[in-house]
Every structure is written in C-alpha cells, then in structure tokens.
Design goal:
The chain has one domain: q2cbj1_9rhob like domain (Jelly Rolls). The protein has about 250 residues and is an alpha+beta fold. Bound molecules: 2-oxoglutaric acid.
Length: about 250
Amino acid sequence: MLKTREPLLTPITEEQYKQFERDGYLLLRKGCSADLIRAFNTHIYELRNQVEVPKWADCEESKKFSLRLFNPHKHDSFSRQMMKLPLIRGVLAQLMGKEANCVQSMYFYKEPGSPGQASHQDYYYIKNDPMTMIAAWVALEEKVDVENGCLWVIPGTHTLGLLPHGDVKNLEEHESWTQETEGIDLTNQIPVEMEAGDILFFSELLIHSSNKNRSKDRWRRSYVCHYIREDSFVTQREDLREKFSLY
Ligand SMILES: O=C(O)CCC(=O)C(=O)O
C-alpha cells in the first residue's frame, strides 16, 4: 500500500521541483489538450451569449466578453472540472506536499486593446495561513505572447517576502483598480510566452504582471485558479473562504 508521507515523485521531475523552488514558477507545456481548451472557450462564450444569462455570470451588455468572469468554479461544472484537472492536482500535491484546495478562479477575456495588470504579488490580495498559495495559469489561445499581453515574471522574487504595493503608475498599460509593487526593478521582468494548454504554476509571492493587449484582433483568454494547501485557510477575504477539493 502507498505510504502517505513519502514525497510524491510524479507528475513533475526532481529538476522541475527544484526549478519551482529556485525561480518561484514552473511552466508545463501542453498540460491539457487543445480540443479541451476549444470546448471550454465555446462553453464560456455560450454561457454569456444566452437570452437568460445566469445571475452569477450576468453583467452589462457591453462587458459580456471583456475583462473577466469571476469565480466560475463556484457555479459552473465545466469550470469546476477545469479547476480540478488531474495534472494540476498532481503538480500542486507535489509542490505543496499535501492535497490542494481551490479558493478562486478567473476566466480572463482580455480582448484587443484592454489593459493588463500591474506588477503584484498574489499574497497581497489573498492572505492565507499558513502561506501555501500557488496559482495555475492556463493559456486558452493558440498564442499568448508579448503583443497580446502575456504574463511577465521576475524569477526568484518569491524569496523577497511581501513588498509594499501602491497606486498603479501607468494607467495606459494597466488596470486602475489594482495595486502595484513598489521599490522593485522591473527591468528584470521576463515574458512567459505560451500556447493553448500550457500551464504556468507560480508562487503567491512571485512578482508578475501583464501589459495591454496591443494586438489588432487577437484575444488573450486564460483560466487562472488559485489554490492553497488543504490545511491552510484564507484569512481576510470573506468571499474566498470556501475551499473546493480537487477530488
Ligand atoms: O492574466 C493576467 O493578465 C494577470 C493575472 C494575474 O496577475 C493573476 O491572476 O494574479
């Protein structure tokens, strides 16, 4: 019988585990299939394209396919299954040392011309105790690149602790309602270009951001879920207290 306390050896290698520890993130190429991604995008499109949009997903007509859909995993079974992808569950169990629970999901549309999110650490927004949070960012477009507003990261910044965050400085580039890390050299940011089904795992303290979608006609959809270890709790955000098991 399987012993429960021994370190798990799959799905990521020892080298990938160390990479996550060193850099604060890990990119897994082709973590799920392109046809699953297409089906998910179609499903989310149809959800808001109905005459009677469910209350939880409803919004102004002009914003139906812009910005983001918040916490679909709480209401929609396809979004919940995407949150529970077996690969994601396995990687998180390996990185955290125990099973993970999901506390937040976001489906980003990021249509052409829409702003990105200024550099930040996720822990600033979602305090959890003990600190165990990891995000899984799934690319939902054939190409997610610098032009359509991919994610940028600063490797190793997950070791700096929580940094001060202040007002966003560049409102042309970034959403005004977010906050931005202060006192950090952003010239060290590197772009993480991805393809449909690639999954980026990153630590709650890793500094990351995204820029405006400058493409003419390419969206930059992504599905981002935030997970904490099963024995950890969200401490301040009432709206994110509910924990969803991955099994
Ligand atoms: O996808 C983006 O543009 C930003 C997402 C992000 O920063 C996050 O989920 O923490």
